[in-house]
Amino acid sequence: MRRACLLSSSLAVLITFLSFSAGQAHEVVPAIGDLQQEGRSLRLTIRMPMEGILAGIDLANTRDTNDAPQAAGYDALRALPAERLAEEIRAFWPQMADGIELMAEGRRLAPRLAAVEVLPAEDPALARDSVLTLQAALPEGAGSVTFRWKPEYGSIVLRQQGVEAPYTGYLTPGSASEPIALAGGGAESGWEAFASYVPVGFRHILPLGVDHILFVLGLFLLSTRWRPLLIQISLFTLAHTITLALASLGIVAVPAAIVEPLIAASIIFVAVENIFTTGLSRSRPFVVFGFGLLHGLGFASVLGEIGLPREAFVPALVGFNLGVELGQLAVIAAAFGAVGWLGRKPWYHRAVTVPASLGIALVAAWWVLERTLLS
Q1: Distance, CA of 194 to CA of 163 (rounded, Å)
Q2: pTM value?
Q3: Upstream peptide bond of 261 is cis (omega within 30 degrees of 0)
Q4: In whole angstroms, what separates CA 20 from the centre of its chain?
Q5: Start-end of H helices in 36-97
Q6: Sign of the dihedral through C-alpha 338, 341, 346, 349
Q7: C-alpha dihedral over 164, 170, 176, 180, to 10 degrees?
Q8: Would you state the pLDDT for residue 123?
Q9: Which residues share a beta bridge with 131?
Q10: Residue 299 in contact with residue 263, Cβ under 8 Å?
Q11: What residues contact 157, with CB distance under 8 A and at least 6 apart?
Q12: Three-state SS at 145
């Protein structure tokens, strides 16, 4: 009993510490690159938070810029006015250009920086994006191009624009794209799109989706038996798949300023219910399904930034959802390994569920405040 209380208290403290840290986190997300031929030149726009590259952070091996040795320099760059940051980007461009490899007809292209725009952050606690517009002359008769950049610049979603069956690829740090046909026709097959979006969905849960992790842990804490837990997780997955698909198709659109506080509120609801009940209520599956619809809108914001290939929309969507499901199951498996073996003890609810759920509720309450009054 004493060991269980110590373990559960440690779990609650760990949940609170990690989650409050995540509330102020600057997670490293993939850059978005849009590629298009314009006559005899190639235009490439890259959208990403440039402060990480300017600070010298290795984005390939960093999950959160707060954890990087260069975090102070990163924060100083974030504090700069937009025009000052744009000047820093222009000054850094010759060095950055050395790490970008655009190839056509066996020749390395020489992109120039045509424009820089620093976008305002939607949330002061989150990183702001910058958009770099690059132009490069194409060799005569060029039929395809390849792209690669330094691993330290992180991963990038590369999308071709202005052609039929455009290429879309998720490039891991330092990897090169396939030859991209300038005339189009390089769209991924359904299986390729499916496979490339599974890790994107998984990564959105582990390590980036702390709010979704806490929701899943809230489900686990009240019911450590596999059958009812899998029913809840399946309903949650079905629900967020529905709204994710509708949002990705443009049928449903809800601003993040509304969705994010409601997601935090859903975590509070589940955590508080855990504290005051000792078993699953009949309404719990319906509540989980309803909250799954809400969380699906949160997932949609990720795909809204990355985008889904038009030619393989369904396989990519299914792959993303499978990645999310695998991430959720990994969280559940870890929770079972930590405290699940205590689930049938008569004191489990008092010693494990209550303190851990209280920690989750406090964190989610802070998020509601942060995402409404402090945003």
Answers
A1: 22
A2: 0.70
A3: no
A4: 18
A5: 51-54, 71-78, 82-97
A6: positive
A7: 0
A8: 58
A9: 47, 117
A10: no
A11: 30, 31, 32, 33, 168, 169, 170, 171, 306, 307
A12: strand
Are the CB atoms for 145 and 180 separated by under 8 Å?
Answer: yes
**SS3 state of residue 156:** strand
User: From the CB of residue 243, how many other CB atoms can be counted at a distance below 10 Å?
Assistant: 22
pLDDT in tens, 152-202: 999 898 999 988 888 888 888 899 998 999 988 776 777 888 888 898 888
Higher pLDDT pick, 38 / 336? 38
Give 53-70 pLDDT, tens digit per residue.
999 999 988 877 877 899
Q: For 189, left (φ over 0), alpha (ψ -120 to 50), or beta? A: beta
Q: What share of the chain is helix, strand, coil (3-state, %, to 5)?
A: 55, 15, 30
d(CA 187, CA 169): 9
Tokens representing residue 364 in the block: 């989610």
Instruction: Judge whether 224 and 205 are in contact, CB under 8 Å.
Output: no
Tokens of residue 352, six digits: 């494990």
Alpha-carbon dihedral of residues 147, 153, 156, 160, nearest 10 degrees? -40
**How many residues comprise the chain?**
375
H/E element holding 108?
strand 107-108
CB 30 within 8 A of CB 46: no
